[in-house]
Design goal:
Helices cover about 65% and strands about 0% of the residues. The protein is mainly α.
Length: about 80
């Protein structure tokens, strides 16, 4: 068994490898998900107009007012 220090060393070893041609970096499991999360936190999540209308309709159906929704979006 590697233990925490062996795992960290293995991670550093893999990440230090030269990426293949046309690839920016060597990635390990979880890297794409962490990158996507960071991008969503920075830029938000794109929602098409029809889906947004459905979200607003559902919110209104449970008593949320437009002003409540605006406050949630701004937070």
């Amino acid at each position: 068994m590697l233990g925490a220090s062996g795992t960290a060393a293995s991670y550093r070893y893999v990440k230090s490898a030269r990426p293949a041609e046309g690839v920016d970096e060597v990635m390990v499991p979880g890297d794409p998900e962490r990158a996507a999360k960071a991008k969503r936190q920075e830029s938000g999540i794109s929602v098409d107009d029809e889906t947004w209308r459905q979200v607003l309709g559902a919110a209104n159906s449970v008593g949320l007012r437009s002003s409540d929704i605006d406050q949630l979006i701004a937070a």
